[in-house]
Amino acid sequence: MGKSAGIHHITGIAGNPRRHVAFYTDVLGLRLVKKTVNFDDPGTWHLYYGDETGSPGSALTFFLWDGAATGRAGAGQAVETAFAIPESAIGYWTGRLVEKGIPHETPEKRFGQTVIGFKDPDGLRLDLVGSAAAAARPGWSKGEVPPEHAVRGFFGVTLWVDDPAPTARILTEIFGFAAAGSQGTRHRFAAGGEALATVVDLRATPGFVPGALGRGTLHHVAFRAATDADQRTMAGEAAHLGLRPTEQIDRVYFRSVYFREPGGVLLEIATDGPGFTVDEPKEALGSSIRLPPWHEARRSTIEASLPPLA
User: Fold this and answer.
1) What does the pLDDT average to over 201-209?
2) Of the residues 71, 106, 175, 182, which has the fewest C-beta atoms closer than 10 A?
3) CATH tag, 7-305
4) Which whole number is the average pLDDT over 171-199?
């Protein structure tokens, strides 16, 4: 009771909204499942990409500040977002990245799985990982990528920390992950089963310059809580470890609690529900600007301040 089923969503910072949407929908073939605003800064976009419904474990979200300075990847940050694709799609994706003019690294083996590394237009580090779990579930059939090759969701995420041990304790004691091996400076932890979005790698980066938030960096990583009760249990564990979790915050599509782990990475505990269909039907996801109830009275002003997406 109270343990996480894995990653709920990952949130980054980006610029140039038109370029950003084109990359994630046209190049990567993800669905733009929600067009909303940063609830704490409603003059800026908060966009959610994912599978057909943006299900937990598939949602990559971004705060878009067009004039934001470029960030710096470094210690105390979540740095690398890994998407899961079928192993049979590795060749397709290698060709697609070449076709789209996206520089990428030579495919390599990591923990026995094939990985292709590349960056988005703002410099955010991304991986495509060949995964048996990805092959076992269908891809979105209406995207820019054929469904048999489509991204299925997250494989996992890599956190850069000076010392992996304190962060490992958070993953195991609060979220219920277990150690799953090491390779070089990477220490892998996994939630149970063969599901997607269940891997967190801790990369030991002693002596690295601390990361700096900005375009091309990740803001936080959210872990799944099936229910409010599970969230309270995990938040209680965090408090017991002296990590000062926030009170629950209503994010409309889920309810959130935040805390910073000892390595410096901002983590979130997010409920699985109610999900992205709470304010628009599945068929229409991402087709209109959705605002939380407390910002609706300012809709015309907010919409006028948002830069165009297409």
Assistant:
1) 97
2) 106
3) 3.10.180.10
4) 95
